[in-house]
Design brief:
seven-stranded antiparallel sheet; 13 helices; Peptidase; 19 strands
Length: 552
């Protein structure tokens, strides 16, 4: 077995949302490489579909660039419904000239087949299933008390991001806004004064957990939900309590620093824009796309304009492969100068969307010694690696699905103790969810030094300034070659690049895949779906696709 195959073989009981428990060994346990090749690794989460379809019409010339033509959409929908016999209904207009369409009685698992069939209709430019995105988190562990992720690389801490030297160049600017697109935030004392008025983009009241749908209050209302509520194949988000994920992520970007309390954030001055998209059972992709455009200052139907557009969007959520809808949203915000930073994922497999889209800063995670973190997703789409805590891949063992190593590392983050807000605390966290916001904080300081930097220049600068992966680590081995990005995040070198850019660059954070991710499979096909597949000549193609799109 090849050395990198251990990254995909852990049983589902230890996967992301169920949690991977990190235990400390009493003494160092270093296994020879042949044994490491047999170590269990997490598997990818199955893609879960909402049961709705995102549709772009082929003839949208009459619609505005940022709005929606609801009447025109309804007319086209009626025409397609009549031609296909499908019970189509407009659920709501989406940003980017798109529409969210529901189909009465459809099993969500059939959504990829239906979307592919609809895409063959001459009136439809694109159709893809709406799907759930999940916060990329792993359980925190209160054993690690120092923020070594921020320190200079030295000794056993080769993975430090070198913030102290960077702070001599810049501590950020209040003119730069970083949007944290996540579960919302809590008014933690160590974030007060940094938070802008944001927005809650969760459209479904049942998922929002705050008694209503979209509104101007991005406060985290919690995401605790039993597994049964989130449907088959999901362990339930925050099933054992609210994650307060957005607060933890925001604190890595910009907790109040140099105030003698709490933790230090990466950027001391950038303003944080909380944008809530994830509640019970995770986040709908369709909500995330609207949130991305709004955060960057683009218009979204039935939502007030954002008065404080962000230059950086941090997305520590993910799932599935990059769709054309995600890529278009990323292209739209990038065209206006906004940088998208996304966590690569915690499945130890291939990066997940939006971390596998093009023009994204896709961030994997490493631990204190610079080795790739045991859970971190890697692949050619990755731009860079940043500290995320966990166990070194080459020093991790698994016992009944539990990862262990001699010296696990952690990321200190702000949080709340218990399910009721108000008992604010500092906790240990780990995951690419916390590698991404550290990178976002460095990007915001680059922009503070040189606001004219384009997203392509930012990506190029991060790549050029990265430190090489240390020797004797997964990413420097033949098995990891080309999978972990340009190297380790170095904040000081990145800010030096911002002061004197090497050129416009053409770096790309992703491959630009447009597949809808793994989905489909066996099971009976409804009569109306069978008729549609036959009508559009897509039966064989759709079935073949559904059985070959498993991503790992």
């Amino acid at each position: 077995m090849k050395a990198n195959q251990n990254r995909r073989s852990l049983s589902p009981t230890a996967r992301l949302c169920a949690g991977i428990i990190i235990t400390s060994a009493a003494a160092a346990l270093l296994l020879p490489l042949p044994a490491l090749a047999q170590a269990k690794r997490p598997l990818a989460e199955p893609v879960r579909y909402t049961g709705d379809i995102m549709v772009k019409w082929r003839d949208e010339a009459g619609a505005s660039a940022t709005g929606s033509n609801t009447a025109g959409t309804s007319d086209k929908l009626l025409t397609v419904a009549s031609a296909t016999g499908l019970p189509l209904a407009l659920k709501r207009p989406l940003s980017g000239q798109n529409a969210l369409v529901s189909i009465k009685g459809m099993n969500p698992a059939e959504a990829p087949r239906v979307a592919e069939a609809l895409a063959r209709d001459p009136r439809v430019a694109a159709a893809e299933p709406d799907r759930w995105l999940q916060p990329m988190r792993l359980p925190s562990d209160p054993e690690f008390n120092a923020q070594t992720n921020l320190h200079a690389p030295a000794g056993a801490n080769l993975g430090g991001a070198n913030l102290p030297a960077a702070w001599d160049r810049s501590i950020g600017s209040t003119a730069i806004v970083v949007a944290v697109i996540d579960t919302g935030v809590l008014p933690h004392p160590d974030l007060q004064g940094r938070l802008l008025p944001g927005y809650d983009f969760i459209a479904e009241t049942a998922r929002a957990n705050d008694g209503d749908g979209r509104d101007s209050d991005p406060t985290d209302a919690g995401d605790s939900a039993p597994a049964a509520e989130c449907g088959s194949g999901s362990p339930g988000i925050g099933a054992n309590g609210n994650s307060w994920h957005g607060t933890r992520v925001a604190s890595v970007v910009g907790a109040i620093t140099n105030n003698g309390s709490g933790i230090a954030g990466a950027d001391w001055n950038a303003r944080l824009l909380p944008v809530r998209v994830s509640g019970k059972c995770g986040a709908r992709l369709s909500d995330v796309l609207d949130a991305m455009r709004w955060s960057a200052g683009l218009a979204v139907t039935n939502v007030p304009n954002n008065p404080t557009p962000a230059r950086v969007l941090n997305i520590s959520l993910g799932g599935g492969s990059c769709s054309s809808f995600e890529q278009q949203a990323i292209d739209d915000v990038a065209a206006g100068g906004t940088v998208v930073v996304a966590a690569a994922g915690n499945t130890a497999g291939a990066p997940e969307a939006p971390g596998n889209c093009a023009r994204v800063v896709s961030v994997t995670a490493h631990v204190d010694n610079g080795d790739n973190a045991h859970y971190a997703s890697v692949g050619p789409e990755v731009t860079i690696s940043a500290p995320g805590g966990g166990c070194p891949t080459l020093q991790t063992t698994y016992t009944n699905g539990t990862a262990s190593c001699a010296t696990p590392s952690f990321i200190r983050t702000l949080s709340n103790n218990g399910n009721t807000p108000g008992s604010y605390t500092v906790v240990n966290s780990l995951g690419t969810s916390f590698a991404a916001p550290l990178t976002s904080g460095v990007v915001s300081m680059m922009l503070a030094l040189r606001p004219s930097l384009t997203p392509a220049q930012i990506i190029d600068g991060l790549r050029q300034s990265a430190r090489p992966h240390p020797a004797n680590t997964y990413c420097s081995s033949a098995a990891g070659a080309g999978k972990c990005g340009a190297g380790l995040l170095d904040a000081n070198a990145a800010l030096a690049y911002a002061q004197n850019p090497a050129g416009s660059g053409g770096g790309s954070g992703g491959s630009g895949n447009t597949g809808g991710g793994g989905g489909g499979g066996g099971g009976s096909v409804p009569l109306w779906l069978s008729a549609l597949l036959l009508l559009l000549g897509a039966g064989a193609c759709a079935i073949a696709r559904s059985t070959t799109t498993a991503r790992r």
